[in-house]
Every structure is written in C-alpha cells, then in structure tokens.
Amino acid sequence: MTPTLNAEEIRDVNTRYHDVAADHYDAKWGIDFGELGQGQVLAKVRKALRRDAGPFAHSLEIGSGTGYFTLNLMLAGTIEKATCTDISPGMLAALGANAKRLGLDVETTPTDAERLPFEDESFDLVIGHAILHHIPDLGQAFEEFARVLKPGGTLLFAGEPSRYGDRIANVPKHLATVLAPLWRAAIKARPAPPADGGAPEASLEGLVDVHAFAPGELSSFARGAGFQDVKVIGEELLANWFGWTNRTLEATAHPEDVPWGWRNYAYKGYLTLQKLDRSLLESRLPAAIFYNLIVTASKP
Ligand SMILES: C[S@@+](CC[C@H](N)C(=O)[O-])C[C@H]1O[C@@H](n2cnc3c(N)ncnc32)[C@H](O)[C@@H]1O
Asked: In this model, does residue 42 exceed pLDDT 80?
C-alpha cells in the first residue's frame, strides 16, 4: 500500500526523486530542444492562448526541470528573459547545462512553488509543465503565482494529469496486457527479462504524484487566487490510447526483440493521432476525458 505522506514529506520525496532522475531525465522522456521540441511547446502555448503568444519580456517557470518549456520558448523567440525555479537543485543543474549548450542565458533559483523568493509583480508570464500535480498546497501556490505576476500578466500550466482521462486510459492498458502474449508471438519476441529494480529512484516513483485533476478543480484554484479569464482545455486522447497500448505491449517483450519497424510505426502513429486530436477532437469534446489538461488565466 502507498504510504500517506504529509506536505513536508511530499516535498522531500520530490526533491530526492528528481535530483536522481535529473541525470537521465531528457533521455527517458525524449526531451528535445530542436525543431521537434520547439514545435511541441509552441503548439501547446498557441492552443492554450488561442493566438500566437508573446514575446513575453520576463517569464517565471515553476518546476522547470531540465528546461523543456522555457528553453524551447526562448529558442522560438516567445520569451526574452527567463527565470526558472525548481525544488530539485539537480534538475536546475541539468537545466543550466542545457542552457549553456544552447547558448541561452537563464537565471535559476531552487525553491518550492509555495514560497517564491521574488518581489510582487515581477513577471509578465508564469508557466509550468507537468508540475502542479506534485505540489501539496495548490491554494498557496496559486496565491504566489498571482502575487509575482504583473497586472495583465499571463498564467499557463500544461501537461497536468486529468483524473477521468487517466481512468479511461486504463482500458487500452488492460486490453494490451491481455493481448500481449499474442502480440509477442506475432513479432517473435521473448518475454521481458525480470525487473532488476530499475533506475535508482524507482522506489520513490509512486510517491511523487499527489493529484490528478478534474477541469473544475484547476479553474477553482486559479479563480480562488483572483485570476480572470480562466480556461481549462484537454489534450491527447487517441494519441494517448495508442501510446499506452504500445508502451504496455513493449514493456512485456525483451527490448532487443522489438523490431525497428514496430517502434517506427508506434512513433509515427502517435504523431499522426496527436494531429488528429488537435485538429478534430480537442475543440469538440469535454476537457475531462482527455489525458492532459492545460489551464490558462490572466491577472486583472
Ligand atoms: C514531471 S517533472 C516536469 C519537469 C519539466 N517541467 C518538464 O516538463 O520536463 C516535475 C518537476 O517539478 C519539480 N517539483 C516537484 N515538486 C515541486 C515543488 N513543490 N515546487 C517546485 N518544483 C517542484 C520536480 O523537481 C521536477 O523537476
């Protein structure tokens, strides 16, 4: 059974987990700072703000990790000056190395999202990707986002897990588990070797995520902190089902036996379905059923 942690323990586990994960984080998640990465991040920002965004004079990123959001937005010309924060000094060190390699100048400050060491009204944009679900006291964190934003400033958080989207994604995961022996026989793959405990941080993995959201909850936090024009949209439906099906199948096979052709099909199929989600489904279906949520708002 997963132990129940208090807020201080959640922050501590997040710091330790991400400090260790920092080393191989970009490779694990396929984080890219080229055309692909910039395209992904810009598409999210355009979709969220319903326009070509920026340029923003000074941005603050919360839980910036190795820099996926901020560095790509700087490279794309959407952000002029950036400050990045994270509870994990290891992640910020990896971000610093990425920024140096890309020739970008970024300020980094290790801090917890609930206590931001910045003056009131310092930033034009507060952003984050895949961070809110790690924060114990979201009411307090949103108060801080509002405090450090200038009047008229923009708030944008993407990549947040959706509670119902996550439950729906269990269906393809379950189906793939049932079909896995047939699939392995078809591609002539041996079963996966027994797990060796995996990466060193694996024992903390189940403890770092503390929320999955219904869209209304995200809106309430933003409104509660005084934001206006609050919108929550969903992203990734078919792409996600397809991705989970393939990842679940692949996890059951010996990695050396999964053919290149299959991996290529899985990757290209994912990108095609992502386009279909974007062009056809995201504007028509309720946000709650998608796998990820994006919340945007502005400070009055
Ligand atoms: C899933 S990673 C996402 C990193 C990056 N935004 C990205 O999309 O690649 C979550 C990040 O949030 C940071 N984090 C976790 N809890 C935090 C907290 N309470 N305050 C600030 N950062 C936190 C972690 O250290 C980690 O870098």
From this structure: yes
